[in-house]
Amino acid sequence: MGADLSYVHPTANSPWGTYLSQVDRVVPYLGDLARWAETLKRPKRALIVDVPIEMDNGTIAHFEGFRVQHNMSRGPGKGGVRFHPDVTLEEVMALSAWMTVKTAAVNLPYGGAKGGIRVDPKKLSQKELEKITRRYTSEIGIIIGPHTDIPAPDVNTNAQIMAWMMDTYSMNIGGTATGVVTGKPLHLGGSLGRVKATGRGVFVTGREAARRLGLDLRGARIAVQGFGNVGSVAAELFVEAGAKIVAVQDHTGTIVNENGLDLKALIPLSRADGLVSFKGGDVIANEAFWDVACDILIPAALEGQITAERAKKTTAKLVLEGANGPTVPVADDILAERGVLVVPDVICNAGGVTVSYFEWVQDFSSFFWDEDEINVRLDRIMMNALNNIWDTADKHKITLRTATFAVACERILMARQERGLYP
Ligand code: GLU
Q1: Which of 96, 353, 360 to mutate to test the pocket of ligand 1 (most atoms within 8 A of CB)?
Q2: Active site includes 264?
């Protein structure tokens, strides 16, 4: 196989191409700081690692792993690690850059980073999963650390994987460094509220956006793409607020029920056998998901899902980006022209990294907060950030995405300027 150079010439709709176009849109609002804008368009550091493991059948398999530190002007790198067969350097670069913008948008003292392994974890045994996690952690151990770069869960990674990462890093340095990763199990320095934090943040920002739009959540119809840790938690909270979930799609298929799907039955079943085994809804073709009549659309799966064609046909008035990078730039324009409000990923799904920050702070102080305290603080941080972004959007008459980038990039580039160039 030839070298992967997709990151050098990204296509317009690829993750890195999408990110670059989002940066281009914000430059006119950066004033004198625009002279530093090029800094946003290149990662500070990108590491590609070989991850060899001995498989259960005795063969040696090699996997490709990445850790990209996009920017550290405001603090250590922060961002998840994803295990997925489609992971590329280009994708991880974009995800790391969105972390830079996200942490700045909610004003956490972090930069942005991301990691990934190109692997289908569903094809690995538990033992193989542990080996790949430990070897990857050891390989990226030269650039991560509690004060340099702090990984966390992302697509297909969880608290157990974070425990192995924490242990591997700790064994290598000869200590116990709980602060090297977040999203850990509770008794290993994890935080209450972390598992549900991303979905809760989607709900908090969505509730406020709906209020401002005059959209009553009681009876509101919601379509959710992706039913993992983000989509299912957000869906539950919206149902508690009176909304109904009329369509859900995951990698196994799509189900609909215009009277609302019964989440209490659906969630455990979807974990065990996949969505389509659920009898309380009708299975439809995957593409038909985008035609389902709804008021709110929550993309909570992977990048590039809302294309121009899908943006033209959605009936949603509000899009809540639980996923990172779900909307391609041309679709963003179509949604704006059609008057569909988009709460962008870099604020909408920032609840996860916000509670990661709480976890990291608790680890350093060795003093742990109760769940109410976590949720109250999370609400406050998300609401303050969103209100500030909304004011910026109103002031310049720009979309919430460009406003979020404006607020965030100003913070990042101000820090960059104040630190100055070395040497
Ligand atoms: N993977 C999550 C995200 O995309 C959380 C990252 C973190 O907690 O550091 O925001």
Answers
A1: 353
A2: no
